[in-house]
Each structure stands twice: as C-alpha cells, then as structure tokens.
Amino acid sequence: MNHLDNTDFAILGYLQENGKRSYSEIARCLDVSEGTIRSRINKMLQQGVFEFIIHTNPNKVGLKVQAIIGFSTQLGKQEEIAGKLQKYPEVRFIGAFSGKHDLIIQAYFKSNEDLVHFVNKELSQIEGILTADVSVELKQYKDSFSYIIP
C-alpha cells in the first residue's frame, strides 16, 4: 500500500470519530461492501498506517501534572540520553528537535512533588544533560491524535 486513496482516508476518518464503529456501518456510510472495508483496514494495519489504541485521559487515572521538558545535551550524547529517558514510565513522548532544545519530552505525574523528584533525583543522574527547561501545563485547549485533515 504505497498510496492511500479517498476511500482509505474516509475509513480513517470514520475510525477516528469512533474507533468502535463496525465495518458494516462504515461500509454503509461509504456505499461499499463490508469486505472492502475489512480488506482495506487490514492492509493499512499491516502497513503501519495506523494502530488501534486506547487513549486514556491522564487526569481520570490520577495523573494531574503534565510537564513538557526541553533538554540541552552534551554533543554526541543525544541518542544515549533519549534511550535512558525511554525507560521512565512517566515519559510519554521523546523527540529530537532543532532550535533551543536538543530533546523535548512530555511526561505525566501524580503530583508536583513527583515531578520535582523526577527532575532533581532521576534526571540529575543522567550524564550529558546540560539543562532541563521544565514547563507545567496549566490548562489544555486541545489534545488530538488525528492527522487526517478533511
């Protein structure tokens, strides 16, 4: 599957609206057979176009503090540091960036005290981190995993 067509994008759109939507319902909406929907979804899954996940609301499971932390790293240490950060369950996202920060992570914590512990006790042990710029989310306006633009 090198190329997604309009039907593929429509299927993705319906699944993003409601991941529990049945193949037969999507087929009716697109006026195609259920087999067509099943086949296309299976191909997209096999090709890694998307995956089915459960998106948990962090606040509802006791994670009240979201932090975005930007790091300046010692030259040559970026990948090693990223590898060490992957081991922390609090860390949801790690990316390498151009600009002010070499690495940026998104992490969730039960409390401010847990965040302070993470920064002062855990991050301080990782060799090669030069600075950590911590920003705590005060209010969220959008949280989306949709990359399909209608």
Q: Could you describe the 3D structure shown?
A:
- This is Lrp/AsnC family transcriptional regulator.
- Pfam families: AsnC_trans_reg, HTH_AsnC-type.
- InterPro entries: AsnC-type_HTH_dom, Dimeric_a/b-barrel, Tscrpt_reg_AsnC-like, Tscrpt_reg_AsnC/Lrp_C, WH-like_DNA-bd_sf, WH_DNA-bd_sf.
- This protein has 150 residues and is an alpha+beta fold.
- It has two domains: 6-46, Winged helix-like DNA-binding domain superfamily/Winged helix DNA-binding domain (Arc Repressor Mutant, subunit A, Orthogonal Bundle), CATH 1.10.10.10; 58-136, Lrp/AsnC effector binding domain/regulation of amino acid metabolism (RAM) domain (Alpha-Beta Plaits, 2-Layer Sandwich), CATH 3.30.70.
- Helices cover 35% and strands 20% of the residues.
- The protein has helices at 6-17, 23-30, 34-46, 78-85, 112-122; strands at 65-73, 91-96, 103-109, 129-136.
- Strands 2-3-1-4 form a four-stranded antiparallel β-sheet.
- Helix 2 packs across helix 3 (34-46).
- The two termini are 21 Å apart.
- The model has no long low-confidence stretch (mean pLDDT 94).
